[in-house]
Protein backbone atom coordinates (compact mmCIF):
# COMPACT_ATOMS: atom_id res chain seq x y z
CA UNK A 1 0.00 0.00 0.00
CA UNK A 2 2.77 2.45 0.89
CA UNK A 3 4.68 1.51 -2.26
CA UNK A 4 1.64 2.53 -4.31
CA UNK A 5 1.32 5.69 -2.21
CA UNK A 6 4.90 6.50 -3.20
CA UNK A 7 4.03 5.99 -6.87
CA UNK A 8 1.06 8.35 -6.46
CA UNK A 9 3.40 10.90 -4.88
CA UNK A 10 5.80 10.63 -7.82
CA UNK A 11 2.84 10.97 -10.20
CA UNK A 12 1.63 14.16 -8.50
CA UNK A 13 5.11 15.73 -8.58
CA UNK A 14 5.54 14.96 -12.28
CA UNK A 15 2.04 16.09 -13.22
CA UNK A 16 2.36 19.38 -11.33
CA UNK A 17 5.92 20.18 -12.42
CA UNK A 18 5.34 19.08 -16.04
CA UNK A 19 9.01 18.11 -16.13
CA UNK A 20 7.88 15.57 -18.71
CA UNK A 21 4.85 15.80 -21.02
CA UNK A 22 1.75 14.41 -19.31
CA UNK A 23 1.42 11.46 -21.69
CA UNK A 24 5.08 10.51 -21.20
CA UNK A 25 4.61 10.70 -17.43
CA UNK A 26 1.57 8.42 -17.69
CA UNK A 27 3.48 5.80 -19.70
CA UNK A 28 6.34 5.97 -17.19
CA UNK A 29 3.89 5.35 -14.34
CA UNK A 30 2.42 2.39 -16.22
CA UNK A 31 5.89 0.85 -16.54
CA UNK A 32 6.63 1.50 -12.85
CA UNK A 33 3.36 -0.08 -11.74
CA UNK A 34 4.12 -3.19 -13.81
CA UNK A 35 7.72 -3.49 -12.58
CA UNK A 36 6.52 -3.30 -8.95
CA UNK A 37 3.88 -6.00 -9.51
CA UNK A 38 4.56 -7.81 -6.16
CA UNK A 39 3.33 -4.67 -4.37
CA UNK A 40 0.93 -3.15 -6.89
CA UNK A 41 -0.79 -6.44 -7.86
CA UNK A 42 -0.87 -5.21 -11.47
CA UNK A 43 0.36 -7.78 -13.98
CA UNK A 44 1.90 -6.81 -17.35
CA UNK A 45 -1.36 -7.81 -19.04
CA UNK A 46 -3.31 -5.57 -16.66
CA UNK A 47 -0.78 -2.80 -17.09
CA UNK A 48 -1.23 -2.48 -20.84
CA UNK A 49 -4.97 -3.11 -20.74
CA UNK A 50 -5.54 0.66 -20.76
CA UNK A 51 -4.76 0.67 -24.47
CA UNK A 52 -7.69 -1.67 -25.09
CA UNK A 53 -10.08 -0.22 -22.50
CA UNK A 54 -13.52 0.93 -23.55
CA UNK A 55 -12.68 4.44 -22.41
CA UNK A 56 -9.52 4.77 -24.49
CA UNK A 57 -11.02 3.40 -27.71
CA UNK A 58 -14.21 5.43 -27.32
CA UNK A 59 -12.28 8.67 -26.79
CA UNK A 60 -10.18 7.89 -29.87
CA UNK A 61 -13.33 7.38 -31.91
CA UNK A 62 -14.86 10.62 -30.64
CA UNK A 63 -11.87 12.62 -31.91
CA UNK A 64 -12.48 11.25 -35.41
CA UNK A 65 -16.22 11.94 -35.23
CA UNK A 66 -15.47 15.52 -34.16
CA UNK A 67 -13.12 15.90 -37.13
CA UNK A 68 -15.93 14.88 -39.45
CA UNK A 69 -18.06 17.74 -38.15
CA UNK A 70 -15.11 20.18 -38.26
CA UNK A 71 -14.45 19.43 -41.91
CA UNK A 72 -17.94 20.67 -42.82
CA UNK A 73 -17.18 24.21 -41.58
CA UNK A 74 -20.54 24.29 -39.78
CA UNK A 75 -19.36 26.33 -36.79
CA UNK A 76 -17.70 28.92 -39.03
CA UNK A 77 -20.97 29.45 -40.92
CA UNK A 78 -22.88 29.77 -37.66
CA UNK A 79 -20.31 32.28 -36.47
CA UNK A 80 -20.89 34.47 -39.53
CA UNK A 81 -24.61 34.39 -38.87
CA UNK A 82 -24.11 35.31 -35.20
CA UNK A 83 -21.90 38.28 -36.18
CA UNK A 84 -24.55 39.54 -38.61
CA UNK A 85 -27.53 38.90 -36.35
CA UNK A 86 -26.08 40.42 -33.18
CA UNK A 87 -24.02 43.29 -34.61
CA UNK A 88 -25.72 45.93 -32.45
CA UNK A 89 -26.49 43.82 -29.37
CA UNK A 90 -23.40 42.76 -27.32
CA UNK A 91 -25.49 40.94 -24.69
CA UNK A 92 -27.28 38.84 -27.31
CA UNK A 93 -23.96 38.11 -29.05
CA UNK A 94 -22.31 37.04 -25.79
CA UNK A 95 -25.30 34.86 -24.86
CA UNK A 96 -25.39 33.13 -28.25
CA UNK A 97 -21.66 32.36 -28.15
CA UNK A 98 -21.94 30.90 -24.64
CA UNK A 99 -25.02 28.89 -25.61
CA UNK A 100 -23.41 27.64 -28.81
CA UNK A 101 -20.20 26.54 -27.07
CA UNK A 102 -22.06 24.82 -24.22
CA UNK A 103 -24.62 22.98 -26.36
CA UNK A 104 -22.09 21.88 -29.01
CA UNK A 105 -19.81 20.41 -26.33
CA UNK A 106 -22.61 18.07 -25.30
CA UNK A 107 -22.54 16.20 -28.61
CA UNK A 108 -18.94 16.79 -29.73
CA UNK A 109 -15.96 16.44 -27.41
CA UNK A 110 -15.45 19.85 -25.79
CA UNK A 111 -11.76 20.24 -26.76
CA UNK A 112 -12.39 20.13 -30.55
CA UNK A 113 -15.35 22.46 -30.02
CA UNK A 114 -13.11 25.14 -28.51
CA UNK A 115 -10.45 24.58 -31.19
CA UNK A 116 -13.10 25.21 -33.85
CA UNK A 117 -14.64 28.19 -32.06
CA UNK A 118 -11.45 30.18 -31.40
CA UNK A 119 -11.00 31.36 -35.02
CA UNK A 120 -14.76 31.75 -35.36
CA UNK A 121 -15.04 33.93 -32.23
CA UNK A 122 -11.92 35.90 -33.18
CA UNK A 123 -13.62 36.63 -36.53
CA UNK A 124 -16.80 37.72 -34.73
CA UNK A 125 -14.76 40.01 -32.48
CA UNK A 126 -13.15 41.69 -35.49
CA UNK A 127 -16.41 42.08 -37.40
CA UNK A 128 -18.29 43.51 -34.39
CA UNK A 129 -15.41 45.63 -33.06
CA UNK A 130 -15.33 43.65 -29.81
CA UNK A 131 -12.29 42.70 -27.75
CA UNK A 132 -11.57 38.95 -28.18
CA UNK A 133 -10.67 38.91 -24.47
CA UNK A 134 -14.36 39.41 -23.68
CA UNK A 135 -15.45 36.34 -25.66
CA UNK A 136 -12.77 33.63 -25.54
CA UNK A 137 -12.71 32.76 -21.83
CA UNK A 138 -16.52 32.26 -21.78
CA UNK A 139 -16.15 29.89 -24.75
CA UNK A 140 -13.80 27.69 -22.72
CA UNK A 141 -15.90 27.80 -19.55
CA UNK A 142 -19.14 27.07 -21.42
CA UNK A 143 -17.54 24.15 -23.28
CA UNK A 144 -16.38 22.62 -20.00
CA UNK A 145 -19.87 22.91 -18.53
CA UNK A 146 -21.45 21.63 -21.75
CA UNK A 147 -19.17 18.60 -21.58
CA UNK A 148 -21.21 17.44 -18.56
CA UNK A 149 -24.39 17.06 -20.62
CA UNK A 150 -23.65 13.63 -22.11
CA UNK A 151 -21.26 10.73 -21.79
CA UNK A 152 -19.30 11.82 -24.87
CA UNK A 153 -18.96 15.48 -23.89
CA UNK A 154 -15.46 14.98 -22.52
CA UNK A 155 -12.89 12.21 -22.19
CA UNK A 156 -13.22 12.57 -18.40
CA UNK A 157 -16.81 11.29 -18.52
CA UNK A 158 -15.85 8.27 -20.62
CA UNK A 159 -12.93 7.38 -18.35
CA UNK A 160 -15.05 7.84 -15.22
CA UNK A 161 -17.71 5.56 -16.70
CA UNK A 162 -15.09 2.86 -17.23
CA UNK A 163 -13.85 3.18 -13.63
CA UNK A 164 -17.42 3.24 -12.28
CA UNK A 165 -18.23 0.00 -14.09
CA UNK A 166 -15.13 -1.66 -12.68
CA UNK A 167 -15.74 -0.53 -9.09
CA UNK A 168 -19.52 -0.66 -8.62
CA UNK A 169 -20.71 -2.39 -11.80
CA UNK A 170 -22.52 0.69 -13.09
CA UNK A 171 -21.22 2.48 -16.19
CA UNK A 172 -22.70 5.78 -17.32
CA UNK A 173 -25.46 5.78 -19.89
CA UNK A 174 -25.36 8.29 -22.74
CA UNK A 175 -27.83 10.59 -20.97
CA UNK A 176 -27.17 9.32 -17.44
CA UNK A 177 -26.51 12.78 -16.03
CA UNK A 178 -27.99 15.07 -18.70
CA UNK A 179 -30.44 16.59 -16.20
CA UNK A 180 -27.62 17.40 -13.78
CA UNK A 181 -25.44 18.71 -16.61
CA UNK A 182 -28.28 20.93 -17.80
CA UNK A 183 -28.51 22.47 -14.33
CA UNK A 184 -24.76 23.08 -14.33
CA UNK A 185 -24.83 24.65 -17.80
CA UNK A 186 -27.92 26.76 -17.00
CA UNK A 187 -26.66 28.27 -13.75
CA UNK A 188 -23.12 28.61 -15.09
CA UNK A 189 -24.37 30.40 -18.21
CA UNK A 190 -26.51 32.76 -16.14
CA UNK A 191 -23.44 33.65 -14.09
CA UNK A 192 -21.30 34.23 -17.20
CA UNK A 193 -23.94 36.34 -18.97
CA UNK A 194 -24.98 38.58 -16.07
CA UNK A 195 -21.91 38.63 -13.79
CA UNK A 196 -18.86 36.98 -15.35
CA UNK A 197 -18.74 39.08 -18.51
CA UNK A 198 -18.35 42.23 -16.40
CA UNK A 199 -15.37 40.68 -14.57
CA UNK A 200 -13.45 39.78 -17.74
CA UNK A 201 -10.80 42.43 -18.47
CA UNK A 202 -10.36 43.84 -21.97
CA UNK A 203 -6.73 42.77 -22.43
CA UNK A 204 -6.79 43.21 -26.22
CA UNK A 205 -8.36 46.34 -27.65
CA UNK A 206 -11.09 45.90 -30.28
CA UNK A 207 -9.88 45.92 -33.89
CA UNK A 208 -6.30 46.54 -32.80
CA UNK A 209 -3.69 46.10 -35.50
CA UNK A 210 -1.70 42.92 -34.81
CA UNK A 211 1.56 44.84 -34.84
CA UNK A 212 0.12 47.12 -32.13
CA UNK A 213 -1.37 44.21 -30.22
CA UNK A 214 2.06 42.57 -29.96
CA UNK A 215 3.78 45.93 -29.31
CA UNK A 216 5.91 45.68 -32.45
CA UNK A 217 6.14 49.41 -33.21
CA UNK A 218 9.67 49.73 -31.91
CA UNK A 219 10.88 46.53 -33.58
CA UNK A 220 9.78 46.85 -37.22
CA UNK A 221 11.65 49.14 -39.59
CA UNK A 222 11.95 49.74 -43.32
CA UNK A 223 15.40 50.44 -44.75
CA UNK A 224 17.07 50.70 -48.17
CA UNK A 225 20.38 49.13 -49.22
CA UNK A 226 22.81 51.84 -50.33
CA UNK A 227 25.15 51.38 -53.30
CA UNK A 228 28.16 51.20 -50.94
CA UNK A 229 26.62 48.46 -48.77
CA UNK A 230 28.82 45.39 -48.07
CA UNK A 231 25.63 43.29 -48.27
CA UNK A 232 25.30 43.68 -52.05
CA UNK A 233 25.74 40.37 -53.88
CA UNK A 234 25.66 38.27 -50.71
CA UNK A 235 22.83 35.91 -49.68
CA UNK A 236 20.53 36.50 -46.73
CA UNK A 237 21.61 33.21 -45.12
CA UNK A 238 25.32 34.08 -45.27
CA UNK A 239 24.79 37.53 -43.80
CA UNK A 240 22.55 36.32 -40.97
CA UNK A 241 24.96 33.52 -40.04
CA UNK A 242 27.87 35.95 -39.80
CA UNK A 243 25.90 38.61 -37.98
CA UNK A 244 25.89 38.41 -34.16
CA UNK A 245 22.75 40.51 -33.87
CA UNK A 246 19.10 39.89 -33.04
CA UNK A 247 17.65 40.69 -36.48
CA UNK A 248 15.29 39.04 -38.98
CA UNK A 249 14.87 39.94 -42.65
CA UNK A 250 11.06 39.94 -42.79
CA UNK A 251 10.68 41.02 -46.43
CA UNK A 252 12.71 42.14 -49.42
CA UNK A 253 10.84 44.49 -51.79
CA UNK A 254 12.46 44.79 -55.22
CA UNK A 255 10.92 46.41 -58.32
CA UNK A 256 7.49 46.43 -56.63
CA UNK A 257 7.70 42.66 -56.01
CA UNK A 258 7.63 41.41 -52.43
CA UNK A 259 9.73 38.45 -51.30
CA UNK A 260 8.59 37.35 -47.81
CA UNK A 261 10.67 35.33 -45.33
CA UNK A 262 12.06 32.74 -45.28
CA UNK A 263 14.32 34.03 -48.09
CA UNK A 264 17.69 32.60 -47.12
CA UNK A 265 18.96 32.08 -50.69
CA UNK A 266 18.03 35.54 -51.95
CA UNK A 267 20.92 37.90 -52.80
CA UNK A 268 20.87 41.53 -51.71
CA UNK A 269 20.92 44.21 -54.43
CA UNK A 270 21.39 47.97 -54.42
CA UNK A 271 18.08 49.72 -53.82
CA UNK A 272 16.41 46.71 -52.16
CA UNK A 273 13.79 47.78 -49.63
CA UNK A 274 14.04 45.66 -46.46
CA UNK A 275 11.58 45.24 -43.61
CA UNK A 276 13.56 44.27 -40.53
CA UNK A 277 12.58 42.99 -37.09
CA UNK A 278 15.15 44.32 -34.64
CA UNK A 279 15.67 46.72 -31.78
CA UNK A 280 16.24 50.42 -32.46
CA UNK A 281 19.84 50.37 -31.14
CA UNK A 282 20.64 47.36 -33.35
CA UNK A 283 19.04 49.13 -36.32
CA UNK A 284 21.27 52.19 -35.86
CA UNK A 285 24.31 49.93 -35.63
CA UNK A 286 23.32 48.17 -38.88
CA UNK A 287 22.89 51.49 -40.65
CA UNK A 288 26.47 52.33 -39.82
CA UNK A 289 28.05 48.95 -40.57
CA UNK A 290 25.83 47.42 -43.29
CA UNK A 291 25.27 50.40 -45.56
CA UNK A 292 21.56 50.90 -44.87
CA UNK A 293 19.48 54.04 -44.80
CA UNK A 294 15.97 54.59 -43.47
CA UNK A 295 13.09 54.46 -45.95
CA UNK A 296 10.36 57.05 -46.23
CA UNK A 297 7.77 54.84 -44.51
CA UNK A 298 7.71 55.73 -40.81
CA UNK A 299 5.53 52.90 -39.47
CA UNK A 300 5.01 49.25 -40.40
CA UNK A 301 1.45 47.96 -39.89
CA UNK A 302 -0.42 44.70 -40.41
CA UNK A 303 -1.28 45.79 -43.97
CA UNK A 304 2.39 45.65 -44.95
CA UNK A 305 2.36 41.89 -44.33
CA UNK A 306 -0.75 41.23 -46.40
CA UNK A 307 0.66 40.06 -49.78
CA UNK A 308 -2.30 38.77 -51.77
CA UNK A 309 -0.43 37.41 -54.78
CA UNK A 310 1.78 35.27 -52.52
CA UNK A 311 -0.94 34.42 -49.97
CA UNK A 312 1.11 35.92 -47.13
CA UNK A 313 -0.32 37.55 -44.01
CA UNK A 314 0.16 38.04 -40.28
CA UNK A 315 -1.40 35.26 -38.24
CA UNK A 316 -1.46 34.05 -34.64
CA UNK A 317 -1.02 30.44 -33.57
CA UNK A 318 -1.20 28.92 -30.09
CA UNK A 319 1.10 26.11 -28.96
CA UNK A 320 -0.80 23.46 -27.01
CA UNK A 321 0.62 21.48 -24.10
CA UNK A 322 1.39 18.41 -26.22
CA UNK A 323 3.36 20.30 -28.88
CA UNK A 324 6.68 18.52 -29.48
CA UNK A 325 8.55 21.85 -29.64
CA UNK A 326 7.89 22.74 -25.98
CA UNK A 327 11.16 23.32 -24.17
CA UNK A 328 12.96 24.06 -27.42
CA UNK A 329 13.65 27.51 -28.81
CA UNK A 330 12.47 28.82 -32.16
CA UNK A 331 16.02 28.47 -33.41
CA UNK A 332 16.72 24.95 -32.10
CA UNK A 333 13.37 23.64 -33.37
CA UNK A 334 14.09 25.04 -36.87
CA UNK A 335 10.61 26.54 -36.74
CA UNK A 336 11.04 28.84 -39.75
CA UNK A 337 12.34 26.09 -42.02
CA UNK A 338 9.90 23.46 -40.78
CA UNK A 339 6.72 25.52 -41.13
CA UNK A 340 7.71 28.11 -43.76
CA UNK A 341 6.72 30.90 -41.33
CA UNK A 342 8.71 33.61 -39.55
CA UNK A 343 8.09 34.24 -35.84
CA UNK A 344 7.92 37.98 -35.10
CA UNK A 345 6.79 37.99 -31.46
CA UNK A 346 5.67 35.72 -28.61
CA UNK A 347 2.85 36.40 -26.13
CA UNK A 348 2.96 34.60 -22.78
CA UNK A 349 0.78 35.23 -19.71
CA UNK A 350 -0.41 38.55 -21.08
CA UNK A 351 3.14 39.76 -21.83
CA UNK A 352 4.63 40.32 -25.27
CA UNK A 353 8.22 39.30 -26.08
CA UNK A 354 9.85 40.85 -29.14
CA UNK A 355 13.53 40.86 -28.19
CA UNK A 356 15.78 37.84 -28.88
CA UNK A 357 12.73 35.66 -29.39
CA UNK A 358 14.82 32.97 -31.10
CA UNK A 359 16.34 32.18 -27.69
CA UNK A 360 13.10 31.87 -25.67
CA UNK A 361 12.21 28.26 -24.65
CA UNK A 362 8.65 27.64 -25.84
CA UNK A 363 5.85 26.81 -23.39
CA UNK A 364 2.32 25.47 -23.69
CA UNK A 365 -0.14 28.33 -24.21
CA UNK A 366 2.38 30.57 -25.98
CA UNK A 367 0.88 32.61 -28.82
CA UNK A 368 3.21 33.22 -31.76
CA UNK A 369 2.80 36.12 -34.16
CA UNK A 370 3.85 34.84 -37.59
CA UNK A 371 4.34 36.01 -41.11
CA UNK A 372 2.94 32.95 -42.86
CA UNK A 373 1.82 31.75 -46.26
CA UNK A 374 -1.48 30.03 -47.01
CA UNK A 375 0.43 26.75 -47.24
CA UNK A 376 1.86 27.29 -43.76
CA UNK A 377 -1.59 28.13 -42.42
CA UNK A 378 -2.91 24.85 -43.81
CA UNK A 379 -0.14 23.02 -41.94
CA UNK A 380 -1.09 24.69 -38.67
CA UNK A 381 -4.79 23.96 -39.26
CA UNK A 382 -4.02 20.27 -39.78
CA UNK A 383 -1.75 19.97 -36.73
CA UNK A 384 -3.57 19.24 -33.47
CA UNK A 385 -0.73 20.69 -31.38
CA UNK A 386 -1.45 24.20 -32.75
CA UNK A 387 -4.56 26.36 -32.79
CA UNK A 388 -4.69 28.81 -35.70
CA UNK A 389 -6.49 31.95 -34.53
CA UNK A 390 -7.46 33.41 -37.92
CA UNK A 391 -10.00 31.70 -40.10
CA UNK A 392 -8.50 30.46 -43.35
CA UNK A 393 -9.26 32.74 -46.30
CA UNK A 394 -10.27 29.89 -48.59
CA UNK A 395 -11.07 26.92 -46.37
CA UNK A 396 -11.64 23.68 -48.21
CA UNK A 397 -14.63 22.71 -46.08
CA UNK A 398 -16.88 19.87 -47.24
CA UNK A 399 -20.10 21.81 -46.87
CA UNK A 400 -22.05 19.28 -48.86
CA UNK A 401 -21.28 16.70 -46.16
CA UNK A 402 -22.82 18.73 -43.30
CA UNK A 403 -26.06 16.76 -43.18
CA UNK A 404 -24.23 13.43 -43.39
CA UNK A 405 -21.77 14.30 -40.62
CA UNK A 406 -24.47 15.55 -38.26
CA UNK A 407 -26.65 12.53 -39.07
CA UNK A 408 -23.81 10.14 -38.22
CA UNK A 409 -23.15 11.86 -34.88
CA UNK A 410 -26.89 11.83 -34.12
CA UNK A 411 -27.01 8.10 -34.92
CA UNK A 412 -24.06 7.43 -32.60
CA UNK A 413 -25.71 9.35 -29.77
CA UNK A 414 -29.15 7.90 -30.43
CA UNK A 415 -28.21 4.21 -30.67
CA UNK A 416 -26.08 4.42 -27.53
CA UNK A 417 -28.68 6.48 -25.68
CA UNK A 418 -31.49 4.05 -26.48
CA UNK A 419 -29.37 1.10 -25.40
CA UNK A 420 -29.35 -0.47 -28.87
CA UNK A 421 -25.55 -0.76 -28.74
CA UNK A 422 -22.81 0.28 -26.34
CA UNK A 423 -21.13 3.65 -26.83
CA UNK A 424 -17.97 1.81 -27.92
CA UNK A 425 -19.71 -0.02 -30.75
CA UNK A 426 -21.78 2.96 -31.88
CA UNK A 427 -18.73 5.27 -31.88
CA UNK A 428 -16.63 2.84 -33.92
CA UNK A 429 -19.51 2.36 -36.34
CA UNK A 430 -19.75 6.14 -36.61
CA UNK A 431 -16.05 6.36 -37.48
CA UNK A 432 -16.51 3.79 -40.23
CA UNK A 433 -19.52 5.71 -41.57
CA UNK A 434 -17.57 9.00 -41.54
CA UNK A 435 -14.83 7.43 -43.65
CA UNK A 436 -16.95 5.58 -46.21
CA UNK A 437 -19.19 8.63 -46.78
CA UNK A 438 -16.18 10.89 -47.32
CA UNK A 439 -16.81 13.17 -44.33
CA UNK A 440 -13.29 12.25 -43.20
CA UNK A 441 -10.56 11.06 -45.54
CA UNK A 442 -8.62 7.95 -44.55
CA UNK A 443 -5.38 9.92 -44.35
CA UNK A 444 -6.98 12.43 -41.95
CA UNK A 445 -8.08 10.07 -39.21
CA UNK A 446 -4.65 9.72 -37.59
CA UNK A 447 -4.07 13.49 -37.62
CA UNK A 448 -7.47 14.09 -36.03
CA UNK A 449 -6.69 12.06 -32.90
CA UNK A 450 -5.07 13.79 -29.92
CA UNK A 451 -2.63 10.97 -29.22
CA UNK A 452 -1.34 12.58 -26.03
CA UNK A 453 -4.81 12.10 -24.49
CA UNK A 454 -4.92 8.47 -25.66
CA UNK A 455 -1.54 7.66 -24.11
CA UNK A 456 -2.47 9.58 -20.96
CA UNK A 457 -5.63 7.52 -20.54
CA UNK A 458 -3.86 4.23 -21.22
CA UNK A 459 -1.06 5.13 -18.81
CA UNK A 460 -3.09 6.25 -15.78
CA UNK A 461 -5.64 3.42 -15.81
CA UNK A 462 -3.14 0.90 -14.29
CA UNK A 463 -2.42 3.38 -11.49
CA UNK A 464 -6.10 3.30 -10.55
CA UNK A 465 -5.97 -0.52 -10.50
CA UNK A 466 -2.96 -0.42 -8.18
CA UNK A 467 -4.75 1.92 -5.78
CA UNK A 468 -7.72 -0.42 -5.58
CA UNK A 469 -5.81 -3.73 -5.33
CA UNK A 470 -3.20 -2.56 -2.84
CA UNK A 471 -5.80 -1.23 -0.41
CA UNK A 472 -4.54 2.36 -0.76
CA UNK A 473 -7.94 3.71 -1.80
CA UNK A 474 -9.57 2.12 1.24
CA UNK A 475 -6.81 3.44 3.52
CA UNK A 476 -7.21 7.01 2.24
CA UNK A 477 -10.99 6.74 2.61
CA UNK A 478 -10.60 5.67 6.26
CA UNK A 479 -8.19 8.56 6.85
CA UNK A 480 -10.66 11.00 5.32
CA UNK A 481 -13.53 9.57 7.37
CA UNK A 482 -11.51 9.96 10.60
CA UNK A 483 -10.57 13.54 9.70
CA UNK A 484 -14.14 14.42 8.80
CA UNK A 485 -15.63 13.02 11.98
CA UNK A 486 -19.42 12.93 11.73
CA UNK A 487 -19.83 14.81 8.46
CA UNK A 488 -23.20 14.38 6.77
CA UNK A 489 -23.39 12.71 3.39
CA UNK A 490 -24.03 15.96 1.50
CA UNK A 491 -21.14 17.68 3.31
CA UNK A 492 -18.78 14.81 2.49
CA UNK A 493 -19.96 14.96 -1.12
CA UNK A 494 -19.14 18.69 -1.18
CA UNK A 495 -15.67 17.99 0.29
CA UNK A 496 -14.90 15.52 -2.49
CA UNK A 497 -16.12 17.96 -5.15
CA UNK A 498 -13.99 20.81 -3.82
CA UNK A 499 -10.89 18.68 -3.29
CA UNK A 500 -11.13 17.15 -6.76
CA UNK A 501 -11.63 20.55 -8.40
CA UNK A 502 -8.55 21.89 -6.59
CA UNK A 503 -6.18 19.07 -7.56
CA UNK A 504 -7.49 19.19 -11.14
CA UNK A 505 -6.16 22.75 -11.38
CA UNK A 506 -2.61 21.39 -11.23
CA UNK A 507 -2.82 17.87 -12.67
CA UNK A 508 -4.67 16.37 -15.62
CA UNK A 509 -8.44 16.04 -15.24
CA UNK A 510 -8.19 12.40 -16.31
CA UNK A 511 -5.47 11.72 -13.74
CA UNK A 512 -7.56 13.31 -10.98
CA UNK A 513 -10.51 11.04 -11.85
CA UNK A 514 -8.29 7.96 -11.63
CA UNK A 515 -6.90 9.06 -8.28
CA UNK A 516 -10.10 10.29 -6.65
CA UNK A 517 -12.91 7.93 -7.75
CA UNK A 518 -11.56 4.84 -5.88
CA UNK A 519 -11.18 6.91 -2.71
CA UNK A 520 -14.63 8.44 -3.15
CA UNK A 521 -16.25 5.02 -3.57
CA UNK A 522 -14.61 3.69 -0.41
CA UNK A 523 -15.53 6.84 1.53
CA UNK A 524 -19.16 6.46 0.41
CA UNK A 525 -19.22 2.86 1.63
CA UNK A 526 -17.80 3.84 5.00
CA UNK A 527 -20.38 6.62 5.34
CA UNK A 528 -23.16 4.30 4.11
CA UNK A 529 -23.77 6.75 1.26
CA UNK A 530 -24.57 6.39 -2.44
CA UNK A 531 -21.26 5.52 -4.15
CA UNK A 532 -22.61 6.50 -7.58
CA UNK A 533 -23.38 10.01 -6.33
CA UNK A 534 -19.79 10.37 -5.15
CA UNK A 535 -18.50 9.18 -8.53
CA UNK A 536 -20.59 11.86 -10.23
CA UNK A 537 -19.28 14.55 -7.88
CA UNK A 538 -15.68 13.66 -8.69
CA UNK A 539 -16.43 13.44 -12.43
CA UNK A 540 -18.16 16.82 -12.60
CA UNK A 541 -15.47 18.49 -10.49
CA UNK A 542 -12.72 17.13 -12.73
CA UNK A 543 -14.58 18.34 -15.82
CA UNK A 544 -14.80 21.96 -14.63
CA UNK A 545 -11.33 23.25 -13.71
CA UNK A 546 -11.90 26.99 -13.91
CA UNK A 547 -9.31 28.61 -11.65
CA UNK A 548 -6.14 28.48 -13.76
CA UNK A 549 -5.27 28.49 -17.47
CA UNK A 550 -3.42 25.18 -17.05
CA UNK A 551 -6.22 23.36 -15.22
CA UNK A 552 -7.94 22.29 -18.42
CA UNK A 553 -6.80 22.12 -22.04
CA UNK A 554 -9.50 24.48 -23.29
CA UNK A 555 -8.33 27.21 -20.88
CA UNK A 556 -4.81 26.89 -22.23
CA UNK A 557 -6.14 27.18 -25.77
CA UNK A 558 -7.74 30.60 -25.15
CA UNK A 559 -5.03 31.87 -22.79
CA UNK A 560 -2.79 33.49 -25.41
CA UNK A 561 -5.40 34.59 -27.99
CA UNK A 562 -7.31 36.42 -25.25
CA UNK A 563 -4.17 38.11 -23.95
CA UNK A 564 -5.15 36.98 -20.45
CA UNK A 565 -3.06 37.06 -17.33
CA UNK A 566 -2.87 34.07 -15.01
CA UNK A 567 -5.05 35.74 -12.36
CA UNK A 568 -7.85 36.56 -14.82
CA UNK A 569 -9.05 32.95 -14.64
CA UNK A 570 -9.22 33.10 -10.84
CA UNK A 571 -11.12 36.39 -10.95
CA UNK A 572 -13.80 35.09 -13.31
CA UNK A 573 -13.64 31.37 -12.58
CA UNK A 574 -13.43 31.55 -8.77
CA UNK A 575 -17.04 32.65 -8.17
CA UNK A 576 -18.21 30.31 -10.94
CA UNK A 577 -16.38 27.39 -9.30
CA UNK A 578 -18.30 28.06 -6.06
CA UNK A 579 -21.60 28.31 -7.95
CA UNK A 580 -20.98 25.01 -9.73
CA UNK A 581 -19.92 23.24 -6.51
CA UNK A 582 -23.19 24.19 -4.84
CA UNK A 583 -25.38 23.49 -7.88
CA UNK A 584 -23.71 20.14 -8.62
CA UNK A 585 -23.81 18.78 -5.06
CA UNK A 586 -27.38 19.89 -4.43
CA UNK A 587 -28.41 18.58 -7.84
CA UNK A 588 -26.83 15.18 -7.12
CA UNK A 589 -28.57 15.02 -3.76
CA UNK A 590 -31.97 15.81 -5.30
CA UNK A 591 -31.69 13.59 -8.38
CA UNK A 592 -29.64 10.61 -7.15
CA UNK A 593 -29.70 10.87 -3.37
CA UNK A 594 -26.75 10.78 -1.00
UniProtKB/TrEMBL annotation:
Principal place of residence: membrane
Kindly give the InterPro entries that the UniProt entry links to this protein.
Cit_transptr-like_dom, DASS-Related_Transporters, RCK_C, RCK_C_sf
Sections of the chain in a coiled coil:
none
Q: Some GO term, biological process aspect, for this entry: which one?
A: potassium ion transport
> Which GO molecular function terms does the record list?
monoatomic cation transmembrane transporter activity
**Transmembrane stretches, start-end:** 6-36, 48-65, 94-118, 139-160, 172-195, 404-437, 449-467, 479-500, 531-552, 572-592
Q: Which UniProt keywords apply?
A: Membrane, Repeat, Transmembrane, Transmembrane helix, Transport
Q: Where in the cell is it found?
A: Membrane
Question: Which named protein is this?
Answer: SLC13 family permease
Amino acid sequence: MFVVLGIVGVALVLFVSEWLPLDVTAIGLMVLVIILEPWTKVTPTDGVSGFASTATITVLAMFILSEGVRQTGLLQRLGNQIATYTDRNPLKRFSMIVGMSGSAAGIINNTPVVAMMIPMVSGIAKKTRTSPSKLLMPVSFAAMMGGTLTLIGTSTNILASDVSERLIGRPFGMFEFTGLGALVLLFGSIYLIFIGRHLIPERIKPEEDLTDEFEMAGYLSEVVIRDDSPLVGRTVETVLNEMDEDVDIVQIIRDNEVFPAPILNKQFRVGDLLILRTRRDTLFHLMDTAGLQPAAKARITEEDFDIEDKGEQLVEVVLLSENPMLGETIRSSLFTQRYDALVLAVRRRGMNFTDRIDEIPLQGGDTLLLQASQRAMKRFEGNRTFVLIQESEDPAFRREKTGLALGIVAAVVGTAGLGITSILVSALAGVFAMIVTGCVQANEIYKSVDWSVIFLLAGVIPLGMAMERSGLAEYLAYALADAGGNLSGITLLFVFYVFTSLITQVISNNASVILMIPVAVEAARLADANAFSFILAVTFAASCALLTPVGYQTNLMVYGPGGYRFTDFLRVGGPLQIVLAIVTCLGIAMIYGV
